[in-house]
Amino acid sequence: MKNAETKMDKAIVALNNDFAAIRAGRANPAILDKVTVEYYGAATPIAQVGTISVPEPRTIVIQPWDGSILGEVEKAILKSDIGITPNNDGRCIRLNFPPLTEERRKELAKSISKRGEEAKVTVRGIRRDAIEGFKKQKKDGEITEDDLKGLENDIQKLTDKFVKEIDTIVANKEKEIMEV
Fold first, then answer.
1. What would the pLDDT profile of 114-168 be if each residue is shown by its tens digit?
2. How many domains does the chain divide into?
3. What is the pTM of this model?
4. 92 and 105 part of one domain
């Protein structure tokens, strides 16, 4: 039971991390979390090669500690799927976020719903695996029929709780995206 709950918690954390990388028209440094730069032969996250700041609501500034990798940072951002063209001024890189169009907002909302459904499928898969484990315990004589019914009921309540939490997270992110 605890194992299933831990896995469901991880599904929620993964969903939140996934949503943090979706831009909602305003600058959010989490968008750069998955972008890596080739630095001394190793793929290094941008946050580890410089300072990332948000001086204005629609601008992110990346200031590498080593000025020689400015071009590498620029290339990494261009290769990533964040959809922003970096402006390199020789000392730092600026990412300007244009306001989202209505069409793009709707696309993002669909994508958010889809990712929410995927998270629910993951949670339900964890429930299925837990119930199979309980049935195996019953078959092996470790638990009784009444224990099995109680555990199935408990895992269903836990699943319902996490599915409701996913729905809330999805609704909040969609609301954030649709705000003008």
1. 999 999 999 999 999 999 999 998 898 888 889 889 999 999 999 999 999 999 9
2. 2
3. 0.69
4. no
